[in-house]
Write a structure and sequence with these properties.
Blueprint lengths: L1 E5 L8 H10 L4 E5 L12 H10 L3 E8 L7 H17 L3 E4 L11 H18 L2 E4 L12 H10 L6 E6 H7 L9 E6 L28 H10 L5 E4 L4 H4 L3 H19 L1
Helix pairs in contact: 2-3, 3-4, 4-5, 7-9
Length: 266
């Protein structure tokens, strides 16, 4: 398994500082995002970012994201095409597709199939892989990996679509199967509050992985590794409390978290 750093974990850093932190942390790659509230790469070209990542010996494992991908429209098709173009210039290995998470489209797997069927030729033309990320929230329109696999197989997309195994969403969904062969990315984060309810739990509760983690990140990673997964394991912490920490303290906690993950990832 290869450790990676998702830009959401340190959103105040610019892209260059994120690369440098990933290098110091012993990561082999990063994930960039287009949802941090500012222009992607702050006006620099994707080619420049790619060159600097490669100079540091880092891979760009993914570029996120197209949200509500299963709310298909001409505008959504253009959004996917645009993200693919940037990903190609970035030499990113994948793009990410996030389902509706607004309480609509529940149990509508056909909408997922429609979107994947339309996205598939775009991926084939670009020789690109898309990661579908089920969200375990009760309001999510695609909660489980099993449902995502059913939709992918229905459109003949097994060669172009992989899954994100997010330890937080795996925990929330109650899904027990891991589908290591379908997994193209693992996202890790930690929840430590012993009193938090699964009804109210949200991204804001997700910090870095620590010893008192409630999600059993280490157990999940062990199961994935035993099943043959050897891809990226990317830290994706959303908690505002972590984001607001002084840079040196946040970096120290991040390094400690990566050290903990290495006890399993190797």
């Amino acid at each position: 398994m290869q450790l990676a750093l998702n830009h959401m974990t340190m959103p105040r850093l610019d892209w260059r500082a994120l690369l440098m932190l990933a290098k110091r942390s012993g990561c082999t790659g990063v994930e960039f995002r287009n949802d941090l509230g500012r222009p992607l790469f702050e006006g620099f070209t994707a080619e420049t970012v790619c060159e600097e990542a490669q100079a540091l010996g880092l891979s760009v494992f993914g570029l996120s994201q197209v949200g509500m991908f299963n709310d298909w429209s001409d505008a959504k098709a253009q959004e996917v095409a645009s993200l693919i173009t940037v990903a190609q210039d970035l030499e990113a290995e994948t793009i990410s597709l996030i389902p509706r998470n607004d309480g609509t489209g529940l149990d509508d797997l056909n909408a997922v199939k429609v979107a994947l069927r339309e996205i598939l030729p775009l991926l084939e033309e670009a020789d690109m892989t898309a990661l579908v990320e089920p969200l375990g929230f009760v309001q999510s329109s695609l909660r489980t990996k099993a449902e995502a696999i059913e939709a992918i197989e229905a459109v003949g997309g097994a060669s172009r679509f992989k899954l994100v195994h997010d330890t937080f969403h795996h925990f929330l969904s109650g899904e027990t199967e891991f589908f290591a062969d379908w997994t193209g990315m693992v996202h890790v984060s930690g929840v430590t509050d012993p009193d938090i309810s699964l009804v109210t739990i949200a991204d804001r509760d997700r910090g870095v992985v620590t010893e008192d983690d409630r999600l059993d990140n280490l157990g999940q990673l062990s199961a994935l590794r035993a099943a043959g997964y050897a891809g990226p394991v990317s830290m994706e912490a959303f908690a505002p409390e972590f984001h607001k920490l002084p840079a040196d303290k946040a970096e120290g906690l991040l390094m400690a978290s990566f050290d903990l993950l290495r006890t399993v990832t190797g």
